[in-house]
Amino acid sequence: MVLPSMDAIKQFAASSLFERIIIGLILITAAMIAIEAFPSLITPQLEQGFNLAHQLILGAFIVEAIIKMVALSPRPWHYFKSGWNLFDFSLIVFALLPIASEYAMLGRVLRLLRVLRLINAFPELRLIVETLVRSIPSMFHITILMSLLFFLYAVLGYHLFHEHDPTHWRNLAYALLTLFRIVTLEDWTDVMYIAMELSPFYAIYFVSFVVIGTFVVVNLFIAVVINNLDEAKYAHLRKLSHPDLHDQLMQTLISTKGQIELLEKKLNALKDASQQPEAQLPTSEEPERTLPS
């Protein structure tokens, strides 16, 4: 049996065929999960077939991880430098644990999470998710500002309306939930009309919170995400315009290093050969004849 060469494995791991196979397996998993959500369609034979298919797909994902690690040789541990690879590998590890087979619900959740691997399969989706993760530190101060705004308006709303409208302002927790309903603009006018039965001037309380909470603070979140999305797009474009600065450069350096080592071996062999003493020519045993004078 002839094993594939390292170059062949690397080419297959970087090929579109390999990517399409993985996407196809993920889509098959999603289709089976969708069918399993219709109990009337599931028969014992179909359930048994689905369980076997899930096991085969899990085996295919294990082979995928091995191929990706081998393709990164002589540094297979670089596989774990990618957050997406860590996510894929974690799903495999958890699926292989005995607890996943003992609890059917946990097994279904792990299968469902496999569908999220489609994000890694499409660069555009991966860019959006990476942008959201990158935006988390920038949102921290905006979250603090919004928390202070919610706290101030919740305490004020409790003291103003808890006796007249205990359904929405019974305590601080109910007041915070009511403000969350208002900031989402979900039937917030009904809450405002109940409060306006006490005084029409209480409309200022609700209008000011909607303006500050929705049109200002929430849009700050959107602005941060859009700004980080633009930065991520520019970084991605720079990476595409200079591919040699990344993975291809590493492959070129590894290949060049191998060629240099081979050349050094040849030079050392030539040097050793040149330092060996030359073979002496055989001399005649007869004494030299002297010519008569």
List the helices and strands and how they pair.
Blueprint: H1 6-13, H2 16-36, H3 44-71, H4 83-96, H5 98-102, H6 104-114, H7 117-121, H8 123-161, H9 166-169, H10 172-183, H11 188-195, H12 203-241, H13 247-275
What's the order of the H and E elements? HHHHHHHHHHHHH
The CATH architecture name of the largest domain reads Orthogonal Bundle
Assess the beta-strand content as a share of residues. under 5%
Indicate the percent of residues in helices.
over 70%
Inertia-based shape: elongated
Give me the number of helical elements: 13
Oligomer: single chain
Under CATH, the topology of the largest domain is which? Helix Hairpins
Number of strands: 0
| Main beta sheet strand tally, sense and closure | none
Summing up helix and strand content along with how strands pair, one would put the structural category as mainly alpha
CATH C-level class of the largest domain is: Mainly Alpha
Describe this structure in words.
This protein has 293 residues and is mainly α. The chain is built from 13 helices and no strands. The radius of gyration is 35 Å and the shape is elongated.
Question: How would you describe this structure in keywords?
Answer:
single chain; 293 residues; Four Helix Bundle (Hemerythrin (Met), subunit A); elongated
